[in-house]
Structure formats: structure tokens, C-alpha cells
Amino acid sequence: MTRTPVLEVSDLSLSFGGLDVLSDIRFSVDGPELVALIGPNGAGKSTTIRFLATLLKPTSGEGRIAGHSVTQDPMAVRRVIGFMPDDFGVYDGMKVWEFLDFFAVAYEIPRLQRRRIIGEVLQLLDLTHKRDDYVNGLSRGMKQRLCLAKTLVHDPPVLILDEPTEGIQPSIIKDIAKALNEIRKLRKITIVVSEQVLSFALDVADRLF
Fold first, then answer.
1. Beta-carbon neighbour count of residue 208 at 10 Å?
2. Comparing C-alpha atoms, which of 144, 154, 172, 196 is closest to residue 39?
3. Of the chain's two ends, which shows fewer C-beta atoms within 10 Å, N or C?
4. CA-CA distance, 148 to 16, in Å (whole number)?
5. Number of neighbouring beta carbons within 10 Å of residue 87
6. Rounded to an integer, what distance in angstroms lies between the CA atom of residue 48 and that of residue 70?
7. Crossing angle between the packed helical segments 170-187 and 140-150, to the nearest 10 degrees
8. What is the C-alpha separation between 13 and 20, in angstroms, rounded?
9. What is the DSSP string of 109-159?
10. CA distance linking residue 125 with residue 197, whole number of Å
11. Which residues contact 54 (CB under 8 A, 6 or more apart)?
């Protein structure tokens, strides 16, 4: 029996102002694993990630995530992915647990479940001690962990992470690698990550593209 890929990109091409950014990109992920898109700036890693996150429309080609078309059913795709952009903001005056609760509410998670889920993702990302801290006072590394925690609140089968090590110290990069390995172990999910730091990609990925 042929197994349907959890994530598949076929014949993906994308142009900006007549410039080809992506051309006939193809890859698939069959099961719970972590794959890394590697390469220098301008290689098209983030463009591919943003396409998968339904933020960019392709010139041609298609993607499917958990059986849903990226181009034809983006809302369904958004329900089954956790997306972490390379640049993200936090909300002034909001505590860590409130930040996570905000996103849990957006995913229509019932109140009693939200409390349990928030506790679980805080523990998983080693943020329990920061629960009542204000998010705008966190370090860059802690904000990175918090954004990763946010992607997990609705228990998605697929995580899409755009350069999670961008702008953080080497010691924190090791923490992010550890967190991703823990997430894979406990959640059994598929993770696609774009990355410039080759050592990080080699540390966490099952396959490189």
C-alpha cells in the first residue's frame, strides 16, 4: 500500500518582478521526521517556508499538508500547522501565559484544556519559571522559545519553522536543538525548518534539502 506523504511540494516555482526565486522545487515528507532546508541567503529557503505557511502564492506548482492543498484550501492548512516566522513580535503588557492563552483562544481550545496545554508547552520549552513574566521583557532567546511554544498549543501534526536560530547566541541555539528533539520525541510530529547554521541542521535533521 502506497503511503500518502504528510507534506509534499510538487513543481513549485515562484517569481518576483520577473526574477525566478524558486524553480520546479519538489520534495516530500512521509512521516514523523525533521527535514531541513539549507543554503545561504537568497537560496529560496524562506520563500518555500512562506509558501507552505500559505503566506505566498506560487507562480506554478502545488503543496499538500496533511491532505490539504496549500493553494486551494489554505484555511485547512493553517489549522494543521504550527508556523514560526523568522521575525516575530510580542505584545506589550502581556504575560507569557497570557500570550499562549491568546493563541489557544484563537484556535477555539476550551478554557479548561487551555490551562493544561499551556502548562505542558511551558514545561516542554523550559519556560515554566517565566510563566508570569511580561513577554516584552524576555531575552531574544526566551522569545524564540516562547514563539516555538505558541506553535504547539493546538497540537498540530506539522511544524514549519523559518530560521529558528536567527539572531540568537550559540548557547541558545543548543537549547533550541534540544527543544526540537524533545518535541519530536514526545509529539511524533513532522517538522520542516529552514536554516543557515549547518551545524544546527545536522544536529536536528533526519534529512537535508
1. 13
2. 196
3. N
4. 30
5. 8
6. 12
7. 20
8. 8
9. --HHHHHHHHHHHHHHTT-GGGTTSBGGGS-HHHHHHHHHHHTTTT--SEE
10. 21
11. 70, 74, 77, 78
On whether the CB atoms of residues 191 and 201 are closer than 8 A, the answer is no
- AA identity, residue 20: D
Alpha-carbon distance 114 to 191, whole Å? 23
Dihedral angle computed from the Cα positions of residues 39, 42, 45 and 47, in that order, rounded to the nearest 10 degrees: 180
Which three three-digit cell numbers place residue 75?
Answer: 484555511
Give the position of cell 477555539: 108
**Closest-CA residue to 40 (of 197, 167, 188, 176):** 197
Read off the DSSP letter of residue 52. Answer: H
Give me the tens of pLDDT residue by residue for the chain, a chain 209 residues long.
556 889 999 999 999 877 888 999 999 998 889 999 998 777 789 999 999 999 999 999 999 999 999 999 999 999 999 999 987 776 778 999 999 999 999 999 999 999 999 999 999 999 999 999 999 999 888 888 999 999 999 999 999 999 998 878 887 888 888 889 889 888 889 999 999 888 889 889 999 98
E strands, 17-129, are 19-29, 34-38, 60-65, 68-69, 81-84
Distances 144 to 108, 156, 173, 179, 207 between C-alpha atoms, Å: 24, 18, 10, 11, 23
